[in-house]
TrEMBL record:
Matches recorded under SUPFAM superfamilies: YfgJ-like
Organism whose genome encodes this protein: Photobacterium rosenbergii
Gene3D superfamilies in the cross-refs: YfgJ-like (2.10.290.10)
Official protein name in the record: Zinc ribbon domain-containing protein
InterPro entries given in the database record: DUF1407/YfgJ-like_sf, YfgJ-like
Length: 74
């Protein structure tokens, strides 16, 4: 559950107002997921409390453990 790490200081990010915040850097990040197979940006789906990711290019769901997560400065 601690895979939300600040890309600049490696501290764990805080979830705040729909974004991820690093108190250490005073920066806010947006989490983006990319397809491990075609590198397209994935669409996040919220189903039964568990998040899953859908690739519109592959036209299939991608396992959360395989997707590539990137944090961009908001
Ligand atoms: Zn930081
Ligand atoms: Zn894909």
């Amino acid at each position: 559950m601690s895979q939300n790490i600040c890309p600049s200081c490696s501290q764990e990010l805080e979830w705040q107002d729909g974004k991820y915040r690093c108190g250490q850097c005073s920066l806010t990040f947006i989490k983006t997921a990319f397809c491990p197979d075609c590198d397209a940006e994935l669409e996040k789906l919220q189903a039964c409390g568990a998040a899953s990711y859908f690739c519109n290019t592959c036209n299939e769901l991608k396992s959360k453990s395989r997707v590539r997560i990137q944090f961009d400065k908001a």
